[in-house]
């Protein structure tokens, strides 16, 4: 309730009368009536601001940018966007950018992105700079894609990489972590791969395998379609790709980011058969 003293103080500050006596009561002057309209607007805006603040505290609204490598963006990140846009989940405004992990981590460190879906390999660990943290979403196997042997029994063969020491290889481009993974896996098997083709697109690699160009190491998530004449072989010395959600360390306390992290963990689960260890 506005008191007479408050009105008097406001009149003194503004240098204009806001009220006047009428009979036994007090009514607004023209200036007072005009100011009252603004007062209602201010109260309405304050109420709206309070509602928005409450939604921000609950993590149900907010604008965020997410960087994700292509195979993650195509699968569970796209499913996360579908859930958000369906109206069943929080009304978050999510901008998605596809980027390889090194670029995504740089964007996090520079403040150009809020979240990053990144990966590391069991033979190529990834360290994050100070101020950044990550949470595991799960892991997947890396398979050898090779021309099908035509066994036709539906079984998954397990092979030694050494058996492919003299085979031609299809590799990712040398600037990618995936290339280092392939080199180290082959090196552990005792040979240096003879690379005859390079592509950062795993779909292209698989088509080249189908064409008989060579063999390739492919993470499970990258196989959207298996071309005819190609089989995926398990490695006797397994290589795994682990998927993580990274952010600046303080941002993992942000309610909106926590909501996004929860949805991403849920949508990633069917795609990543090897679950992270409990903390």
From TrEMBL:
Q: Please verify whether the record's keywords include Secreted.
A: no
A GO molecular function held by the record: DNA-binding transcription factor activity
Instruction: Classify the source by domain of life.
Output: Bacteria
Q: Does the keyword Cell inner membrane apply?
A: no
Parts forming coiled coils: none
| Keyword tags | DNA-binding, Transcription, Transcription regulation
Show the Gene3D superfamilies listed in the entry. Answer: Periplasmic binding protein-like II, Winged helix-like DNA-binding domain superfamily/Winged helix DNA-binding domain
Provide GO CC annotations from the record. Answer: protein-DNA complex
Q: Where is the HTH lysR-type domain?
A: 1-29
* InterPro entries assigned: LysR_HTH_N, LysR_subst-bd, WH-like_DNA-bd_sf, WH_DNA-bd_sf
Q: Which family does it belong to?
A: Belongs to the LysR transcriptional regulatory family.
| Protein name per Swiss-Prot or TrEMBL | DNA-binding transcriptional regulator, LysR family
